[in-house]
């Protein structure tokens, strides 16, 4: 008998929200000090819980971010870089993404909202958008993202999403196809790096809607 699907609420992690797979939940919480998350049997229950305080559903208190020797090993982010982030509305399913130049916090692009998306898709498109923009400008500066999943997709030149295409998100799937084609037909020297939230604080490209 097939297992019933689970829905995962992440109150504290690299990204917060409601995720429909353990892999997505784990990507936000694995190795994240003080992560707060829990599984629910239905999406309505998960959405309701996300709007509430996590300690109504799980015990304990979040731990402070690690400091000291490990933080020193991680170092500081490269200021001459482009940082991207995405936002996914758990109520509507709309997704948007943006990118900033880290040294000045200048916003370089904002895209969306797009209907019926996911956070991982937004992060993937944001990285590719940043790479294409920098390629056009002849710049090899790094691109930071706080999504390990999206960084992996970019590395494989394929958005491995389980999202189903609908009449509402046709535009989004067209963007995914174009992004994958760009990765397959262009070479770039820009390092795509992980934004270390637990040591550097919130991603500066964050939409600030938590």
Automatic annotation (TrEMBL):
Keyword tRNA-binding: no
Location(s) in or outside the cell: Cytoplasm
Coiled-coil regions listed: none
Domain of life from the UniProt record: Bacteria
Catalytic activity of the protein: Endonucleolytic cleavage to 5'-phosphomonoester
Record's keyword annotation contains Nuclease: yes
Residues involved in Mg(2+) 2 binding: 123, 146
Pfam family, one: Cauli_VI
Recorded family membership: Belongs to the RNase H family.
A GO MF label: nucleic acid binding
Protein name listed in UniProt: Ribonuclease H
Top-level EC class: hydrolase
Cofactor: Mn(2+); Mg(2+)
Record EC number: 3.1.26.4
Task performed by this protein: Endonuclease that specifically degrades the RNA of RNA-DNA hybrids.
This protein's UniProt keywords: Cytoplasm, Endonuclease, Hydrolase, Magnesium, Manganese, Metal-binding, Nuclease
Residues involved in Mg(2+) 1 binding: 85, 206
Cofactor: how and how many bound: Binds 2 metal ions per subunit. Manganese or magnesium.
Domain RNase H type-1: 76-210
GO cellular component term, pick one: cytoplasm
């Amino acid at each position: 008998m097939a297992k019933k699907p689970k829905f995962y609420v992440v109150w504290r992690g690299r990204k917060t929200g409601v995720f429909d797979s353990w892999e997505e939940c784990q990507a936000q919480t694995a190795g994240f000090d003080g992560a707060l998350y829990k599984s629910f049997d239905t999406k309505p229950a998960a959405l309701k819980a996300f709007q509430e305080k996590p300690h109504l559903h799980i015990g304990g208190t979040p731990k402070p971010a690690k400091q000291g020797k490990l933080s020193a090993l991680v170092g500081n982010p490269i200021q001459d870089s482009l940082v991207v982030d995405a936002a996914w509305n758990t109520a509507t399913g709309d997704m948007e993404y943006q990118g900033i130049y880290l040294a000045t916090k200048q916003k370089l692009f904002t895209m969306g909202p797009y209907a019926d998306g996911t956070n991982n898709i937004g992060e993937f498109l944001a990285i590719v958008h940043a790479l294409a923009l920098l390629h056009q400008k002849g710049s090899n500066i790094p691109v930071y993202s706080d999504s390990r999943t999206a960084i992996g997709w970019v590395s494989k030149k394929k958005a491995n999403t389980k999202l189903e295409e609908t009449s509402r998100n046709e535009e989004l799937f067209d963007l995914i196809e174009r992004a994958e084609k760009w990765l397959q037909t262009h070479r770039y020297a820009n390092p795509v790096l992980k934004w270390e939230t637990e040591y550097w604080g919130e991603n500066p490209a964050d939409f600030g809607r938590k």
